[in-house]
Every structure is written in structure tokens, then in C-alpha cells.
Design brief:
- The protein has 16 helices and 13 strands.
- The chain is α/β, with parallel strands linked by helices and 468 residues long.
- The protein has a domain at 115-368: Type I PLP-dependent aspartate aminotransferase-like (Major domain) (Aspartate Aminotransferase, domain 2, 3-Layer(aba) Sandwich).
- The strands form three sheets. Strands 1-5-4-6-7-8-9-3 form an eight-stranded mixed sheet, sandwiched between helices.
- Helix 10 links the parallel strand 6 and strand 7.
- The longest helix has 28 residues, at 367-394.
- The two termini are 30 Å apart.
- Mean pLDDT is 83; it is low at 1-62 and 280-301.
- It binds pyridoxal-5'-phosphate.
- Pyridoxal-5'-phosphate binds at residues 8, 107, 159-161, 187, 231, 235, 262, 264, 319, 321, 327, 332.
């Protein structure tokens, strides 16, 4: 059974360390007619010189203003130039109606919702006429208890991508040259979120094996840096950030710089050397997770409260979209010291997390659901190990993924590979000129991927045969 389709995001920029806006290009998503029209509309109405930035109103004469007042259909002024320049933010590929394809394009959980979660959703739907609890108080308390922190440290939002947007909006001042450092390629929402907040992107290329280059990220920090985003496991390449390396990084980052540690795929990590603030075996713990020597884990000793006490500039970002399978209900959260959490709460969309989502989250965090969920996470980890092991046997040398996806760095053949995958019944996520990301799903989907990958060993996808 293929799970619900979640949105995913992309942009076409090449990775390099520069405080810059994202480059744009056209890929799979850019061909979407409706979005393209919407983008044209944005471009068409946006002034293209600094002098014109006051928007349509600055060009209006009194007559124009009067015509508008009369409501004769005159167009409103353009949006901020940063909005006109945003790279596209599009949903992942989805099957056409009636088509049976394995949807491995958005890193979703392939399992259907738990019966206890569906019951909670149905119950909550009876109160749809009411606003939800503004701060998702019960969910925040349950998540705080899981993380071992006070509820004042926790903010729940409409997906972790919204929480990240709120963090940026609270800490990045538009037009001041505030910089946000992140690895590239990483989660495609980062450049978009930074641009929307009015920050300046500073992209630091990943190492050839798909890991973060933390020394280079440290070197990219300047007096203008407000925030550093670290994604572990990294989307789309898959490796985690190692404990020793991240501890050295945290110790060296100036205290005024927020370090946002995005752990969207935390629960799939089986490698004991990965850094996580909850210690070598982060909570909630997947049964398959490996053990590590506690003594080898200075920052993690004492769990999250001790880590935050030592590093008050650290923010942990997590989601219920992946391991918890709630992508369609949009629940994410951050854990931070109370003053940072309060700033995020202050800028958050009021009533941003629906009552249905809150009840589903609570049902997912209840003890019986936890057991079922961790059994599923264990099965997905086992499936990942099966698929990656078989790929290695086929001769592939891929980044060491600890997430629920695999990265094929196919370079210029990415678009052709995605088209061939679709023809073979699999939807994947192409990144033009770089590679494809394939989610771990049902074992049958894994088999289909392995057949395709074996074929590619014999006949690699040929770049240039379709328009990227
Ligand atoms: C690294 C990373 N962070 C955050 C998110 C967003 O998750 P959410 O569904 O909670 O907005 C994703 C989703 O793909 C992701 O890959």
C-alpha cells in the first residue's frame, strides 16, 4: 500500500559557498502548467529595478488610484523582489490517476495510518467547528516528556518546515545582510525559507561522500551569520553528522549564532557514531539502533536538558512526518532553550496546528502506538539495509545513508534516470545535473529499484536524451 503523498521541494542551484540567491532553472516541476503561470504572474507584476520597488503604488497617479478605488480590475502592486526571485517550491512527482507506481519521491512512510490514529482523527473531526488549542499544549507536553525537557523548551508547528520558517523569521532581519550558513546540497526548503525571511544564503558544498564539511561550515561563519543549519541525516544524500566532529563544531561556533540541527530522519539512524542530543541512543528509540559507548559522547551525556544548558544556541528540529507517518497532517517541532522557544512561539501562525493533527500526534505518542511505530521503523531500517547491501553487491558505491532514502549521484543523467525509473514503475526525486533520491518503501518497491539499478550497471542512463 502506498502512503499519502506529501509535498516536497526543489530548486536547481549548484552547491558552492557563496552568500547568494538561489540560481533558477527548469526541471521536472518547472513544467507544471499551473505553477508556471503563477510564477509568470509573479514575475510579470514585480518591478525589476530597485527604483521600482515601491510596487505599483509608487507608479500610480491620482487617476490610477481612483480607478482602483472604483474596483475596475486594476492589478495590485508586485510582491517583494525576493518573492519574485524565489526558486520553485513544488510537490514531488505523483502518479497519474489510475496509475500504479511506487511513490518513492518524497521520503514518506509507506505504511498506512495506525487504526488508533485514524480513530483519534475521526473523534477530533467532530469538533471541526472549534479552533484548536493555539499552542498544541498537550502535544508539546507529550513531546517534551519524550525528549526529557520542560514543555517551555518545545514549540509545535505546522510541519517542521514551518517551525524553521518561524525560527528564521524570529532571528533573521531582512535587509541587514544577515547570513544563514547551510550545507549544499541539502534539504531544498532551506534556500527558499532563507530567501523568504530576507536572509542571505551561504552554501557550503558537501564532501564528496555526501557528508557535511563542518570545518568549512565553521570557516564560513562571519560576524553577519545568524544561523547555521545542519541536516543529519542529510537530505538528499543520507549520511549523519558524526559525534566527535559535531561536538568540536558546537564548541567553536560563536554563541550568538543559532545552530539548528534538523533531525527529520532521526528515528531511522542505526549508526552508533551519529550525533544526537539525546545521547547515543536517542529517544524514542528504534529497536534496531546500535549502542555506543556513553563515555565517547561528551555533549550527549545527561541528554537534551544538559546539552541545551551547555549549548543554549542549539535548536533541535524534528518532525512526525517521517517515522510517525503523519506527513499528511503536518506536525513538526523544535526543542530549544525557553527564550528561543518563546521567540518562535511569538512569530508562529496562530492556531497553526489543526485539532485533528494534534489528536493524531497524541495518539501516535501513546504507548501502544509507539510500539507499533517502532516495529515499522525497524522494518524500514531492515529494508534499507537489504536494499543498500544488494546495491553494494551490484557494484554501486553510494553515500552511507542512515535515513529512509538512498542517493544515486548520477550527475547529468539524473533526469534520464528519473524518466527510466518512472517507466519501470517507480517515482523518484531527480535533482537535475546531480542525482536522484529514492525513498525506502515496501519490499516490492525495493525489488523494483534493485532490478532497475542492476540494469543501470549494465546500461547506465544516458545524459542528454531528454530535456532536463
Ligand atoms: C531534512 C528535512 N527537514 C524537514 C523536513 C520537513 O518536514 P515536515 O513535514 O515536518 O515539514 C523534511 C521533509 O522532507 C526534511 O527532509
Amino acid at each position: 500500500m502506498i502512503g499519502a503523498m506529501a509535498s516536497s521541494f526543489r530548486d536547481d542551484a549548484k552547491g558552492e559557498a557563496r552568500p547568494d540567491q538561489a540560481e533558477r532553472g527548469s526541471q521536472e516541476g518547472a513544467r507544471d502548467g499551473a505553477r508556471e503561470r503563477a510564477r509568470e504572474g509573479v514575475r510579470g507584476s514585480a518591478p525589476d529595478t530597485a527604483g521600482g520597488r515601491a510596487g505599483g503604488g509608487a507608479r500610480d497617479g491620482a487617476g490610477e488610484g481612483a480607478r482602483r478605488a472604483a474596483g475596475d480590475g486594476a492589478r495590485p502592486g508586485g510582491p517583494r523582489p525576493a518573492v519574485a526571485a524565489l526558486p520553485p517550491y513544488v510537490p514531488g512527482a505523483r502518479p497519474d490517476p489510475g496509475q500504479r507506481l511506487w511513490k518513492l519521491s518524497s521520503n514518506e512512510n509507506p505504511y498506512p495510518p495506525l487504526p488508533s490514529v485514524l480513530e483519534a482523527v475521526a473523534r477530533a473531526a467532530e469538533s471541526l467547528n472549534r479552533y484548536p488549542d493555539m499552542y498544541a499544549t498537550d502535544v508539546a507536553a507529550a513531546l517534551a516528556a519524550h525528549a526529557g525537557v520542560d514543555a517551555s523548551c518545545l514549540v509545535v508547528g505546522n510541519g517542521s518546515v514551518a517551525v524553521l520558517a518561524h525560527l528564521l523569521s524570529a532571528y533573521v532581519e531582512a535587509g541587514r545582510g544577515d547570513e544563514v550558513v547551510f550545507a549544499w546540497r541539502s534539504f531544498e526548503a532551506y534556500p527558499i525559507a532563507v530567501d523568504i525571511a530576507g536572509g542571505r544564503q551561504v552554501r557550503v558544498p558537501l564532501l564528496p561522500d555526501g557528508r557535511h564539511d563542518l570545518p568549512a561550515m565553521l570557516a564560513a561563519i562571519t560576524p553577519r551569520t545568524r544561523m547555521v543549519l545542519v541536516c543529519s541525516p542529510n537530505n538528499p544524500t543520507g549520511p549523519t553528522v558524526a559525534r566527535r566532529e559535531f561536538e568540536a563544531f558546537l564548541a567553536a561556533v560563536p554563541p550568538h549564532v543559532l545552530v539548528v540541527f534538523d533531525e527529520a530522519y532521526l528515528e531511522f539512524v542505526a549508526e552508533p557514531t551519529a550525533w544526537s542530543p539525546a545521547g547515543p541512543t536517542p529517544e524514542p528509540r528504534a529497536p534496531a539502533r546500535g549502542e555506543a559507548d556513553e563515555a565517547d559522547c561528551d555533549e550527549a551525556v545527561g541528554g537534551l536538558p544538559a546539552t541545551l544548558a551547555r549549548r543554549p544556541n542549539l535548536v533541535i528540529l524534528r518532525t512526525l512526518s517521517k517515522a510517525y507517518g503523519l506527513a499528511g497532517l503536518r506536525v513538526g517541532y523544535c526543542v530549544a532553550v525557553p527564550e528561543v522557544a518563546a521567540a518562535v512561539r511569538a512569530v508562529a501562525t496562530p492556531f497553526g496546528v489543526t485539532g485533528v493533527s494534534q489528536e493524531a500526534a497524541l495518539a501516535s505518542l501513546a504507548a501502544p502506538a509507539q510500539e507499533e511505530l517502532w516495529a515499522r521503523v525497524s522494518a524500514l531500517i531492515a529494508e534499507r539495509e537489504r536494499v543498500t547491501g544488494a546495491l553494494r553487491e551490484q557494484g554501486w558505491s553510494l553515500p552511507d545513508t542512515q535515513a529512509n532514502f538512498v542517493w544515486f549521484p548520477l550527475g547529468e543523467a539524473a533526469a534520464e534516470a528519473a524518466a527510466e525509473a518512472r517507466a519501470a514503475g517507480i517515482l523518484v526525486r531527480p535533482f537535475a545535473g546531480e542525482g536522484i533520491r529514492v525513498s525506502i518503501g515496501e519490499p516490492e518497491a525495493g525489488d523494483a529499484l534493485l532490478n532497475l539499478a542492476a540494469r543501470w550497471r549494465r546500461t547506465p542512463p544516458r545524459p542528454g536524451t531528454i530535456e532536463a
